Structures are given as structure tokens and as C-alpha cells.
Amino acid sequence: MITRRVERALVRAGNRGRRLLSILKPYEPMGQGKELLDSQYASAEWDYLRSIGEAPRFGVVSAYCRLLASGGSILEIGCGEGILLEHLDRGRFRRFAGVDISSVAVDRARVLEDDRTTFTCADAEAHVPDRAFDLVVFNEVLEYFDDPLALVRRYEPFVEPGGHFIVSMFAGIHTARTRSIWRWLESRYAVVAHTRVATHRDHLWNVKVLRVPTPA
Description:
Layout: H1 4-24, H2 34-42, H3 55-69, E1 73-77, H4 83-86, E2 95-100, H5 103-109, E3 117-121, E4 133-139, H6 148-153, E5 159-170, H7 176-186, E6 190-200, E7 203-211
Parallel strand pairs: 1-2, 1-4, 2-3, 4-5
Antiparallel strand pairs: 5-7, 6-7
């Protein structure tokens, strides 16, 4: 029988191994494709995002949305089932558009649609918005892409002058990749605000507001 002390030692060893792997392979994307995401949404694997434990980070993102885009428009890349919208006072915004590659998630999000709210099933690397927005949100999505900075930069033309990006990323054991992404982003964008959110033990997120440069 494994004693509690041995069990803790095994956990620590496993965590060290995962940290080392993330350092050795810091730029490897998580590789979540459409088929996998559709399967996960269909099997309710993402339902926990509506739990009270996840409310703090959604609360921070939604608070930034209210401050930066009240009376304006928001584009969310990787919107899933529209959970961020559920945290917002929809009457405060002129328009909300969500984009996600999972057709299962988007089909569920579409029950929230109205004359100011739309959800589109599309690959974020190919999607072309039909207008500019005051705010573009990347909530736990950049880690999934081969070139996160290129993905963010392709949406610069669709941000109104004086607009912002909101980026939220997990900051736990596998942090080497996200640290690299933050360095890339902060080499191009000024950080307007930064909040570090704890939901569960060892479950931490960094949420940052980035100012989008005005085209020369």
C-alpha cells in the first residue's frame, strides 16, 4: 500500500517532470482541434466552466469588458458555449460577437442570440469579422495555436482606434509556454491592466488588458 508520504513524493516528482517538459518544449501548442473539441463539448467535459469555482476569472474578464466597452462592441475569439456573455449585462453593449471552431459549442451558444448578439462557427486563424470592435477577448485560447502572436495581430485591423485586447491564460504547472506567449505579446502591446486570479489551489490565471497600437 502506498503511504501518504510516498504518494505526495510521487506527485511532486510528476510535477517536476511536467515543469521540465514545459521548459524543454515551451512552444508546442496543446493541439486541440475541432474534432476533439466537438467531442469534449458533446460529452459535457467543459460544463465545469459554469461552476462557482470558475466564476472569479470570468468575473475579472467581464469587469474589464464593462469598463472598456460599455456602450460599445465586443468580439470573443474562442467563445465556446457563450459563458462569458452569460456573465455580462447584455444591455450595456451595442454588439457582441462570438467565434469558436466547435460547432457543438456554437450551436449551444446560439440560444443566446438576438439582434445584437451573434455566434459564428469558424477557425480563428481564417475568420474575417464583418466590422471593427472596441474590444477583442482571447479567454483561454491562445495556448492552442501554433503562432499565438500572429493570431492576435491578425485581429488588429478589426479593433476600433483606442481599442484593446483582453487576454486570459492559465498560470499553473505548465507555465513555460504561457510565459513565452506573454513575452511575445508584451513586446508589441502595452499592458494597461493585469489581474492574477486564484480559483482553486494551484489554479491561477493571468488576465491582462493590452492596448492595440493605432496604425501609423
